[in-house]
Specification:
The chain has four helices and no strands. With 198 residues, the chain is mostly helical.
């Protein structure tokens, strides 16, 4: 059951609210407040009525659009039914071809599984070897520290400077310790040079 929309007469609500506001300005106290509330309520109801009317018209347009879409959909549905019948025929042909391909695939799959088992066995051996090498490298890394050559050269220079200072002061023990430290760095740099050339 559809509702009949009766458009509001132009400016009737505006004239009524203007009249009520004028009356409220002439009447004091509670009656004036009631008239102002009535004017505000009429304005609010007028806005709601206009929104409802606009919404009704939009809904009518939407219904027209949906009816047109329904007709187009019915035509498309008929065309789809014909296409589905043709596709079913093609599917039967493809299914027969797929069965033949499946047989060939299963044969190839068996061959590849055999290769995969061989590869997994080989990977297992390589993984064991890699773990052995990692353990070896980890053990080596625990005994070695990496220091840039420039830092070693700087430390060697500092040991020379300390040794000279201790010699001037007559501190033979500190001088000897500084020279031993410098000698140890010389040894490390000497060992490094052949490795750099290789």
């Amino acid at each position: 059951m559809s509702a009949t929309v009766v458009p509001l007469p132009p400016n009737s609500a505006s004239e009524t609210t203007d009249f009520l506001r004028r009356m409220a300005s002439m009447v004091s106290g509670r009656n004036g407040e009631m008239l102002l509330r009535a004017a505000a309520l009429i304005g609010s109801l007028t806005q709601r009525a206009m929104s409802a009317e606009r919404l009704f018209h939009e809904q009518q347009e939407e219904n027209k659009r949906l009816e047109e879409l329904r007709k187009v959909t019915a035509l498309a549905s008929d065309a789809m039914v014909s296409q589905i019948a043709a596709l079913r025929t093609q599917l039967a042909e493809v299914t027969a071809a797929a069965a033949a391909e499946r047989t060939a695939f299963d044969t190839e799959r068996g061959r590849l599984l055999g290769l995969m088992r061989d590869a997994e066995s080989h990977i297992g051996k390589l993984t064991t070897e890699l773990e052995t090498l990692r353990t070896s490298v980890d053990a080596f890394n625990e005994t070695v520290i990496s220091v840039p050559i420039e830092v070693l050269r700087l430390a060697r220079t500092q040991f020379d400077h300390l040794s000279s200072g201790f010699a001037r002061k007559g501190d033979v023990i500190s001088q000897a310790m500084s020279e031993i430290g410098g000698f140890a760095i010389d040894q490390a740099l000497t060992v490094k040079k052949p490795a750099d050339k290789a």
